Amino acid sequence: VEAEDLAGNQAAHPAEAIEGTIDRSVGLELPQGARAWIALGRAFVEVREAEGEELSSLEARDAATGEAVGAEVFPAPGEVRSAGDLLDVPSRKPVAPDALRSGQLHLLSAWLPDPARPFSLALAARDAAFPPNERTWTIEVRPPAPLAREDLVEVSIAPGGADPPHVVPAAELGAEPEGKPEAELEARRPRGLRLAEALLLRQPRLRDLSVKTAPGRVLHATLELGDEVRRARASSDGVRFEGVDFAPDRDVEAVLDLRGALEDSLELRLVLHGDTRPPRLSAVAPGPRERPYFAGAAEARIDLEASEPLAEVTASRGARRISGAAVPGAGRSLYRIAGLGALGIEGDGEHEVLVEARDRAGHAAEPLRHKVVVDSGPPRIAPVGERDPDGRLRLEGSKLLLSVVDPNGVDPQDASCRIEYEAEAGGRGEATVPLTHQEGDVFSASLRGLPGRCSGSITALVKDALGLATGSRPEDRIPFVLVRPAPAWRRAVRWRGVDWILADPPRRLYLSRTEVSNRLFRNGAVIRGGSYVLPDLARFGRPRYWTEAGEPPRYLRQDGTIVPGDDFPVAGVSPEEAEAFARAVFGARLPAWSELVASATAENPGGRYPWKDEDAGRAWCNHRDVQPGSPVAARRALGMASREGKLLNRAAHIEADFDPYPREAVEGGAGFARLLHLAGNVAEIVRLDAGGHGLAGGHYDASYAELGLDREPPPYGSDAIDRWSKTGFRLAMTIEGAPAEFIAAAREGEEP
Fold first, then answer.
1. How far is the C-alpha of 699 from the C-alpha of 572, rounded, in Å?
2. Are 518 and 568 in contact, with CB atoms under 8 Å apart?
3. Cα–Cα distance between 627 and 635 in angstroms, integer?
4. Helix (H, G, I), strand (E, B) or coil at 365
5. Is a pLDDT exceeding 90 seen at residue 553?
6. Across 260-348, where does the E strand assignment appear?
7. Would you place residue 285 in the very low, low, confident or very high pLDDT band (cuts 50, 70, 90)?
8. Which residue in 682, 693, 639 sits closest to 658, CA to CA?
9. String of DSSP letters for 520-535
10. What is the pTM of this model?
11. CA distance 22 to 5
12. 579 alpha carbon, distance to own chain's centre
């Protein structure tokens, strides 16, 4: 090369030779040809720059549209044998096309516009020659099908220890539970799979969890187990996780996310239960009273409740053994071992059976010794007592005793006996009375409603726990004869706070010893909070002289002291109030005029007073002409008074329980001394024989002559005496119609 400038000066340097290279092609090779690997949603193409070549650009385009496709070039990790070898490539640092190392293998990574569809990738290369050489390769990218159930072969779960693995074929994996929103299902196709039920293991550890798949279909996987997340690269035929621990004694869900070449997901859910505790067994009673009763050995069974599902449950006696099964539809771990007769259970009585069980994890439960009672017949009935020469049960009292024997026991709430009898005095009858459990096997029944002397038959009506009832067998019918003496009645009874006196034995009539006091009248069944609670008495409000607060009147004594009126007779009540009180509180009534006269004058028949000595009796009753200095005169109140001591009226009452009789009369057994204030104090409301009510016995403001009981009083009803301060009442009760509790208290002596 020679050179000369415009002035004609020639170059001072000697000529130099310029060497050049003729480059007629792009120096880029595709070792695998027009083939692309698919992984992570990308297409990977192997490229190598030839020795001595230098690329200036390398572009990826959509062959169909010419649009550029995002692409990067990475150093290759080595020879690519499967898509799994490409998982770490995107984590490397990309290389610019003009910085490729000649002779070394690189990978071009191009994002797929739609990984689920075939795609033509145009790869255009240009070198640094002048002018540059260019070449374009067209690579057909055919993505694989998305992951599906068919890509799974089996799941193998190897527990910790030496237990063999649980191998679950893919066909046994169920789809996700029904009920998930359709939008969610559409967003995660293919649908996830799950193991049908929790997998029970003997310890909370997996030696190995592996999923076998079709070759090359899964590239990597993620395992989520509680708070732990683990990742693993797939081999050619699946993925494997080793040494997996989880929480014990509860269900733990393991979520295995399998990823294919398109980064598509196939989710597999497993529920693991590392059971470290043995099961607990408890017997469930098939019948009442929490005891296992059966009508025969063939029907005998054992019902059990377990703390967890069981793999095996058996019952044995000696060398014989039978198995049980779960009770379907129970909603809990219930098991039944039926057909216990196969264990040699025969005959009525108690039989012991050994129950053993093992849970699904292989843990053995503590053996349970269970007792089964077989009873093929109703209770056995036997009378308690002596029999007469005719073989009849001889009863001399009012109580029947029966022995009721049954291995099941009987229901005491459903036990009675039917009594058919013929009275000695004539007449037939039938009665059903309840049986009451006494102790052991003994039951009792009351015969009080039967005639004193009668005979007939007694049939016990009893059911055992199986519902087997007596009454139809000949031996259930017991002949009897009752020779009970006539009952004797107590002369005095203390019942419900009242002293009751047998005032008229032939009539079996009891009268209260005293007039009803304010204290006794203050009963919650009648009056509460200052008002009557009985609807029939609402119009009266309260006793006339009581306060709105429900307090009885106070009394002013002769010495000027004010005392509460609790022990004074309740005054100012009408017959309706008196009758309602007697009925509601005691089941009693007011005495009739004739009853009161007969009771008061029993020792002075036809007399005016209870006592024969009329002069002596003047000092024994509270009346207007009472003798000064007598106990009654000293005891009389001046009248009712306010809290401040103001006299409200001149109701000269004395306490209802004040005894005015002299000691010699009481100790001498005078009959009239047993009933207080039959004359005087307050006029007592009585029933008249012709109907209605009247006032008997006079009051504190009447003369002694007006206290006589020799003539029937006029009917009650005058406005002048309605709810009067001079009236009161006492109680009457006859054995006929009296409450059973009162009859029991009034009967003389212990019940035979």
1. 13
2. yes
3. 12
4. coil
5. yes
6. 265-274, 281-284, 293-294, 301-306, 310-317, 320-323, 325-326, 334-338
7. low
8. 682
9. HH--TTTEETTEE-SG
10. 0.43
11. 31
12. 47
